[in-house]
Amino acid sequence: MNTVAGVRDLGVYVHVPFCSVRCGYCDFNTYAPGEVEGATREGYVEAALREMELARTAMPGDARAARTVFFGGGTPTMLDSSALIALLDGVRGTWGLSADAEVTTEANPDSVTKESLRALARAGFTRVSLGMQSAVPHVLTTLDRTHNPANVERAVAAAREAGLKVSLDLIYGTPGESLADWRASLESVLALEPDHVSAYALVIEPGTRMGAQLRRGEVEPTDPDVQAEMYELADTLLSEAGYSWYEVSNWAREPADRCRHNMAYWRSQDWWGVGPGAHSYLGPHRRPDGTEAPARRWWNVKHPRAYAARLAAGESPEAEGEELAGDDLRLEQVMLRLRLSEGIPAELVEGRGEAVAKLIADGVLDGAAAVRGTLRLTRRGRLLADLAVRALAF
Question: Does pLDDT of 6 surpass 60?
């Protein structure tokens, strides 16, 4: 498959659906030991490699090498480093890796060692994204996190020693977390001087254990106004320390420290998702027969056992898919790209001048940038990004 004008990058996402425990707030497609009868880590690796072989036949004529690879989950480092390396070798064999490829794995601070990180770095991994979440013990307990704050410092030191870039992931707005708790977590992050920081507002989903606790009145949700204060505090402290926001929930020291894989999502580049429940996306493209194809998104069956069974039978693990064209495709681009500091070209929402004017008047969009033809969120606008997208919908 050939891309239009060959302008889009190709990334690969590898979903590893295993965790040591299921955190109470998590609604991702992950499984703790004993939750998935008949599905093993060894079987998962075999199935994922088979899906890569299938991808080779599904993308005829596409000679692009992967520019980014992201191992997410779950906790990818629940697999031995040798298994992660085998999966990365599978990516190399299927698509190839560009000379400057960014290769990231997520990890829990207590799921890596000096030895495992060295092995990953030698094999071509370039980044590790550590799920720190908080530096405050009672907040970690509420989140069901298994590590203690000291594990984070050890993991960061080990990653740096291995030559890996380091991202620290935080969650704010946990029930019982005060503004002072959140400040303590931010100060702990800054003391470790990571290359990249992500900070996400906790959303308590109905189907999670924390959702059930909320229904029973066992926990109280954090006031949205307090969450907004927490975001503003994060942006202030990180900015003062030399980090720049480049996406609503992400900050980096330098442009080179931004997560290129996630940037590809927000910029509607192409990616193939490997693993149970993984999503894939290919933008408008030209088929081998010369005809034009619309953008397409698809996703795999979620259960690891069903995923492995399909691939063992030589079948596609795809569960469902959809095509995107016209206004649907344009709306998705607005929804994703507006979250970036670079903003979107004003012509992308041509005909929505009244909505744009109101968003500028309300302090959601940067008026000076709009005059120059770019719609860009203000800091207030970052807190109201979903509202901005709805207002600009067409």
Answer: no
How many other C-beta atoms are found inside a 10 Å radius of the C-beta of residue 55? Answer: 20
Q: Is residue 294 domain-resident?
A: no
Contact (Cβ atoms closer than 8 angstroms) between residue 253 and residue 242: yes
Q: Which of 332, 333, 302 is nearest to 317 (CA)?
A: 302
Final residue before a domain boundary, out of 237, 265, 293 = 265
Tokens of residue 78, six digits = 């629940």
Q: Is residue 275 part of a domain?
A: no
> By the 8 A CB rule, do 354 and 340 touch?
no
Q: Is residue 334 part of a domain?
A: yes
| Tally of CA atoms within 13 A in the half-sphere of 70 that contains its CB | 22
**Nearest-angstrom CA–CA distance, 356 and 349:** 9
| CATH code at position 260 | 3.20.20.70
Per-residue pLDDT of 327-351, as tens digits, reads: 888 889 999 999 999 999 999 998 8
Same domain, yes or no, for 131 and 248?
yes
Residue-wise pLDDT for 72-94, tens only, equals: 998 999 999 999 999 999 999 99
The domain that contains 347 carries what CATH number? 1.10.10
> Would 307 be classed as within a structural domain?
no
Domain containing 195: what range?
Answer: 2-265
CA 233: distance to chain centroid? 22
Q: Residue 307 and residue 299: Cα distance in Å, rounded?
A: 11
Contact criterion met (CB below 8 Å) for 375 and 343: yes
* Residue 218: band (very low, low, confident or very high) from pLDDT cuts 50, 70, 90: confident
Domain count, the chain: 2
Q: Can you tell me the distance from the alpha carbon of 231 to that of 382, in angstroms, rounded to the nearest whole number? A: 9
What percent of the chain lies above the pLDDT cut of 70?
Answer: 95
348/258 same-domain check = no
- Alpha helices by DSSP H, the chain: 41-58, 81-94, 114-123, 137-142, 149-162, 179-192, 209-215, 224-240, 260-266, 304-312, 326-337, 353-361, 367-371, 379-383, 385-392
The 8-class DSSP code of residue 64 comes to P
User: pTM for the full model?
Assistant: 0.93
Could you count the other beta carbons within 10 Å of the beta carbon of residue 312? 12
Residue 104, strand partner residues: 70, 127
CA distance 203 to 212: 13
